[in-house]
Amino acid sequence: MIGIPPQVSRAQGVKELVEMQIEWKHPEKTLDELIGTLREGDLYEISDAASRLGAWGERAIPPLMQLLRDPDLNMRWRAAAAFVHVGKPAVPRLIKALQEEDWPVRTAAIYALEQIGDRRAVPALIAALHGKTMECRCMAAAALKKIGDPGGLAAMGRALDLERQGERDYVEELTGRT
User: Fold this and answer.
1) Within this chain, domains 32-116 and 121-178 share the same CATH topology
2) Which residues make Cβ contacts (< 8 Å) with residue 31, sequence separation at least 6?
3) Residue 160: pLDDT band with limits 50, 70, 90
4) Helix axes 31-40, 61-68, angle to 10 degrees
5) N or C end of the chain, less CB within 10 A?
6) 60-96 pLDDT, tens digit each
7) CATH number for the domain whose boundaries are 121-178
8) How many helices (H) and strands (E) does the chain have?
């Protein structure tokens, strides 16, 4: 049995033992290994890899951008989930992704921007309210609602008033707007 030295509090000793256990079970992975796990892991491994990619910060952005453009829709959403963990450093690249021709790339980028919640995305999300596809328009409205920027909310309200009833109902359901 491992003893806790007397100069260490019981709580600190337990914490250190738990950390040792976690490190033993989950050794650090390289960036390439984490991207590989995003591609081929099971649900739990994918979630863990997405979370761990956040620690890589800006270095994770280029391979995640490649994954965001993958033909497989699942890969795109896995990249979006990882971008959420990267957070604010990813915002400029995600905003740029809203200019992609492929609408599934745009919807995944909008999701990540919504979850990150950075107000720098508001102008691009307002522009997406008037895009070609219903999916992008609706997701942009939901993102603006979550971010809560007054200008974005006003633009969302105008777009909802102008768009077709079915889209308005869908966005209201997504955002809880009554």
Assistant:
1) yes
2) 53, 56, 59, 60, 63
3) confident
4) 20
5) N
6) 999 999 999 999 999 999 999 999 999 999 999 999 9
7) 1.25.10
8) 11, 0
